[in-house]
Amino acid sequence: MKTPEPQMHSDLDRLGDEIAELSAHLEAATARLLDRIREFDARGGWNNGFRSCAAWLSWRVGLDPGAARERVRVARALGTLPRLAAALARGEISYAKVRAITRVATADTEERLLAVARAGTAEHVAHIVRGWRYVDRQAEAREAKRRYVLRGLQVYPADDGTVVVRGQLTAEAGALLLRALDAAREKLYPRPHSAQSALATVQNVSAETPTFPQQRADALVSLAETALRHGLDPGAPGERYQVVVHIDAPVLADGDQPGQSVLEDGARVSAETSQRLACDASRVVVREDADGRLVEIGARTRTIPPALRRALHHRDQGCRFPGCGVRIAEGHHIEHWARGGPTTLSNLALLCRRHHRAVHEEGYQIERNKHGGLTFRRPNGWAIPDVPAAPAVPADPLNALRDTNGADAVNVNSHTLTPEWRGERLDVGYAIDVLHPRATAARPGECPPTDECPPTDEEHPSPDGDLAS
Ligand SMILES: [Zn+2]
Ligand SMILES: [Zn+2]
Question: Which ligand has the minimum distance to the alpha carbon of residue 325?
Fold first, then answer.
């Protein structure tokens, strides 16, 4: 094998140095990018038709959804980890390391983990974080188990013959109970729907309306009755949250027309909401004469027949809103059927619930353009492109980046990003024992090869597409 000429060798060294230096510049620029993403996220800049900051990022700059979610997660985490953020901003540690460390770091452990990031390679950091998470998960599992064991309900008679109820539930069971209690309470004590009845309620409040705890107690009894009456059957998922809307035909066609639009329990919903619910629903047409007497009740039909719905799903695959694509979606009539719009493929589009609401209730517009595609518009009439135009980039982006970093006093060279590692073997178990505040006997070496402790990459299947990894 020939040794390279000395001249060529120094050429390659220079090229290597240049790669290292530019990489450090990119890391520093990534820190600034993450700062801006964090601010954009916190101020809700994405909330103009997009489900999340990640969905907006994915649409606007073309990141794949996993990488976009990861960017937002890291940006948020760095908001509470200033030392880590500063090291990235100085180009001293890579985004790949920051991404891994932000999965486990807290204000208390940030300093120690930053030292790991400086000393080790990206692979070392990944190993440490994996071990760290294992210890965290074990501690969490112990905590969850403790809370679950604490659950209990005491029901006992007091001296005066009343019954005392006292108990403790896990967070999720508690949330379920609260929801049920609220629903039962609303049923027993519906909120007034008109100003007049509100006034009447206020006037009678001291005499008639039970206090909030009394209402809750009544709600609990009502829950017990309901459960026993229905043989404790929670029902199929589809039946659990059914909404029935009664709406007058003129209101359905035009929200400005007078007429009723109410839920089964009498609560009024806006005409726009009724139109959305009716877009893709079961429909029963009821005819009344001028005096409100029932003349005819039609058969229940789907507004979008099953065969057409299958074709619609096959064509659209998921929500058609730019950058969305959520697969669980509803059929939307571009021209509402109540206004005479036909139920045909060309007048239908799939929209997820979020975007169906955007179109009916938030003023977003959707139209079929002359090429047969769909055009979405913001409430102000601006079109939302499927793929936004790429921003202008200077002819020499690398030097522009160097200049910007220089102006921000980011001074990097070809060794800024290099870890301190000199080739020693990494003992992850020892490192975790020394570093992790909650490390006990649990060693990642004992981690069983099950889904308890999968490799980090499998937990985050698509965090790639990043500047620096
Ligand atoms: Zn619709
Ligand atoms: Zn959508």
Answer: 2
Q: Ligand 1: distance of its center to the CA of 281 in Å?
A: 10
> Which tokens hold the place of 68?
């976009």
CA distance 110 to 80: 10
CA distance 333 to 343: 7
- DSSP label at residue 389: P
CB distance 268 to 248 below 8 Å: no
Tell me the residue length of the chain.
Answer: 469
333 CA distance to ligand 2 middle (Å): 15
Contact between residue 279 and residue 360 where contact means Cβ atoms under 8 Å apart: yes
Tell me the β-bridge partners of 12.
none
What are the residue ranges in the chain where pLDDT is below 70?
1-8, 192-208, 233-244, 263-268, 290, 292, 440-469
Residue 6: what pLDDT? Answer: 59
| 344-389 confidence digits (pLDDT tens) | 999 999 998 889 988 988 889 999 988 888 999 998 999 998 888 8
Torsion of CA 320, 322, 328, 331, to 10 degrees: -30
CA of 57 to the centre of ligand 1 (A): 26
CA 27 – ligand 1 centroid, Å: 45
DSSP class of 268: B
Tell how far the Cα of 277 is from the centroid of ligand 1, in angstroms: 7
Whether the CB-CB separation of 383 and 322 falls below 8 Å is answered with: no
pLDDT tens digits, residue range 84-116? 999 999 999 999 999 999 999 999 999 999 999
> Under a CB-based contact definition with an 8 Å cutoff, are residues 49 and 41 in contact?
no
